[in-house]
Amino acid sequence: MKSNENIVLIGFMGAGKGSVARELSASINRFNLDCDDLIESSMNMKINEIFEAKGEPYFRAIEKNLAKFLAKNVKNAIISTGGGFVNVKGLEKMGKLIYLKASFDCIVQRLKNSENAEKKFAKRPLLKDLEFARKLHAQRESIYEKKADIIINVEGKTIKQIVKEIKKILNKEKN
User: Which of 131, 107, 132, 133 is nearest to 120 (CA)?
Assistant: First the structure.
């Protein structure tokens, strides 16, 4: 891995990309950028509000613009993406793609068991209908796998264990 290359976490919503990014960022002393947070900040709206007011195609267009900006202007950062960001053209230009892989049932359980479960479900508009979300997970899984430079199975692992695994793989690539 190039020393100035971004580490970009991809995976389905609720797989732990944001939590892993924060821990990894602190652990290797790089800035952490969360794509959903950047979009919410720039739009002055929550993701679910953007979906409700402007629709999903509008949101996806914002993601596309953000991906171009990050690829061109950001180096040496940890970037966590939203679940659908994997469909953005040019995603691979943003940096090394690490797919945090988890089954749909694992993701739903992780969210249900979190201390602020209701809030975590509410901020993910595509999880309102779990059957739709299950189908979406199945559709996206092969896309994540094809685009990923590295795949990490996160099931049954703590955030610290996942970060340790990522660091181990990245250190091997350096040597």
Answer: 107
Reference 152, options 64, 27, 20; nearest CA is 20
Q: What's at 108, amino acid-wise? A: V
pLDDT one digit per residue (tens) for the chain, 175 residues = 566 689 999 999 889 999 999 999 999 999 999 999 999 999 999 988 998 999 989 999 999 999 999 999 999 999 999 988 999 988 999 999 999 999 999 988 887 777 776 666 666 666 777 888 899 999 999 999 999 999 999 999 999 999 999 999 998 887 6
Closest CA to 166 of 13, 3, 28: 28
Which residue type sits at 167? K
User: What's the CA gap between 162 and 147, in Å, rounded?
Assistant: 19
Residues 6+ apart with CB under 8 A from 75: 4, 5, 6
d(CA 113, CA 93): 35
Residue written as token pair 């900006």:
69
Helix (H) or strand (E) holding 120: helix 117-122
